[in-house]
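Re: your question from the hallway

Yes, I did run it. Sequences:
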Amino acid sequence: MKYSRWTRAAAVLVGLAAGCGGSGGTAKTVGELGNGEFVYGCENPNDGACEGLGEAVFPDCIVLGGKFRMDYILRDPDAVDDNWNETFFVFVASANQDFFEGTDVFRANRVGRAAMLARVDEQIIDMIHLEIAAADRIEVRGIDGSPTSTVEVPQGLAVQVDVMPQADGCDPLGGGGPVTAVSSDAAIVDASGGERVSLRGVALGSTTVTVGMAGYEQAITVNVVEAPVTTTTDGTDETAGTDETAGTDETVGTDDTSGTDGDTSGTDTGTDGGSTDSSGTGG
Amino acid sequence: MRRTLHAALLLAGLAAAGCQPHYDGLRIRYLNGFGEFDASGLDIVEGQALAIEVEPISDNPYEDYEDFDIVELDSFNEQIVLVAPADTVNRFVVVGAQVGTSAVDVSINGDDVDTITVNVGPQEVGP
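Structure:
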């Protein structure tokens, strides 16, 4: 079968498009018919497939209720009947919308095992079966990324933590989804859910926050501690010395890791001249 | 004279019939996926797909099907079972779309030659 340069170009473009979109990394695996690769893309920050700083990993399973992207990179244009047609378009479709609902971005709706299909018009040129698993527990990840049941929050600052769904036999568990958070004492800790759990230290003390996801709930202890204070004695040199305070900041600054961005920097600027630190370090 | 003519016509008819393959079923090769063919037809599970390669079998000992004989499979009800051509000739992907029973029509070179019953069963989910 012959195919034109345009056909090759179309295949490459489909491949490039497959790498776009989504909020996290992507991972590839060869389809069951071997004509190309399915490309998994994370849609949620608590997707186990995109956990950590390294490459994303194609997930063993998708958590019930989880969302993800799926694209396909065609490697063998001969697999397409009409590959003389310069405009053929490869798309991924769910074999059954009861299990994987959607187009491009899919949501796992039913526990089981279901196929995703790579299609060109009426043709199915490749397929892959994915397991959909209900989470059997959740893990709260501390600001250093490790599982924890206790989180420290400086007073006046906010810390964000991830809640990761887990299921036996699924490592990694893809999907992820929205999390809930309820503080048992909002006068001490203000908690809110969403893509991540945000904990803001209101007043010194300790309370519990119940986080939930995929039907599971777990209580964590949140200790609100005094915010680190940078003591600038007098001169500019001393301020440079507060680089050590910047070290303290990193403790707090793990906020940065968890991405509390605006809140943290805003408070830092007011409290310890974080902006001075930054410029000092940078200079 | 008349008997001779009858015999000639009979021989010509037999010769013409002998020049064509006669359908006697499909040889099915499993490529990947989940599903099983047996004497009663195809069993497949909802949401899952089975890739197969088919080869028509002729019971005419003098004439087999050739590569240029085109096999087509068409679902009677795509809401229950979807059948689509796969990556090459005579390869198909069968998808269990919904629990139920339907059938797939087999045609060769445009002629209907067979019907395969397809049972789409529910997924068994463990406790």
